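Contributing: when you submit paired examples, paste them exactly as shown. First protein:
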Amino acid sequence: MPSDYVRYFRSDPQHIASGPVTPGLALLGGPPDGPPPEVDAAFAWLLAKSGWGRFVVIGSDGVDEYAHYLYDHLPPPHPMSVETFIFKSRDAASNPDVCASIGQADALFIQGGDQWDYIKMWKGTPVQQAMAEVIARGVPLGGSSAGLAVLGEFVFSARNGTVYSSEALADPYHEGVTLDRDLIDAPKLPPYSWLRNVITDSHFQDRQRMGRLLAFLARLAQDGWSAAARAIAIDEMTAVLIEADGLATVVDNRPAHDRGAAFFLSTPGLPEVCQPGQPLSYENVSVHRIGASDAGATFHLGTWKGQGGQRYQVCARQGTLEVSPAIPATAG
């Protein structure tokens, strides 16, 4: 077995036939303690989108968790096969067998781990090109935790490790606030194009990440990367499912007393104060929160408007996060 990657493969010998492959995006906020358990409804949706064909998982850590999850935890129908590649070095991203397997995927999923591993091992390699070709073919794409972090045009790279909200609010140029872009690059093809001008974040309310997300958005504006950046942030064991037309719904696997949510943020432009060594001030950032318990609630990424859920604003004032009262959101 090659030392620069580990491959796991499992198939269903009783698999009969695959359905059509249709595009879609499954954005997962991540499990609380590593890979599976995951959001069952999100994977059932991905499998249906894949026609129950070849499910390919890529990452940089872990073992064969997703094959076990998909075959032994989820009810049938099961995929034709689950093939997992765990990358150990950048050399694996030039391996023709790895690229060929990714290119044959009917669904592609990026598991959790460390997004800096993905950027340093995949960006500018044949694997990145293979992912682009799969996307161009319209296969469903998903990612959880670090895998979610790399799906947007803009990426919190974690090059220097994680960063906490208190650190990022106190100094948006803190060494932990590291940004990258375009690991997944499909600017013209829905639904993938709906993540242009977007940065994503995971484990959101569970790890109190609103403050750091404001700092990311402020930096994107201040550094000239975007005049009006947007964000999608998702709680643990919660997922956003995006159809090709941009319509998004929220599902979760959380207990009834603690349901998960997704947050869709939009910015007004430049922050009031975003300078090295100074506390962040950023006013009038809009938030649309949709909980998994908000029956019938949807969000449309094409118009960046939702129906159901709640709307409110957040701001940073001299490094302190402030939240305005939420109001019910109606159509438009």
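Second protein:
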Amino acid sequence: MKALSVTGRCLASPPPADWREQLTQLLGAKPRRIGNWAELGLYGAMLCLADAGEKTLPLDATLMLTSRRGTYAATGAALAQMGDGLPMPLTFLQTQPSQLLALLSAQMDWMGHACFLATAQPQDLLRLANAQMGQDGVLLGCVDEMDGGSSNWLRLRPDAPEKHDFSASFLAWMPPASVAHGV
């Protein structure tokens, strides 16, 4: 396993009361036509990148996103709309967690390897990220709407093996329930 260093982080579990206003400031405009889950993800990812001193990811970085329950609120809304006919197009799009990856890529003007993953243990996500990341590291995110919401992100870069052991930081990044019950 490659040694990694944490160069940026956002631990928003739950985010502050004014997180939407902060997101508008980070983006330069209020996000439109996206759901709460995607807004939470944008908020955390942009703060993490700012903490790392980056506005975008290098082309050879990887973007990996996970969630304990995904877009369950939007999925519930789409299922309720199905009872009245067909779900509205924007509601349906909000059920797709990979939409956040497209939003982040567009916001950062970045094209690279990005994926949404389901995993039972946070360590599994780390192992996969470590195996698949490019030479410029990885941006890892875990976004959830449960319990007031959370948007936890780490910006990791390969490092000299003797410099850093961040396993405690990685486990602190995941909300406690996700460590006990899977991501």
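If you have annotations for the second protein, write them as plain sentences, like these:
The beta strands are 4-12, 62-66, 113-117, 138-144, 150-158.
The helical segments are 19-27, 36-51, 72-82, 89-94, 98-108, 122-132, 167-173, 176-181.
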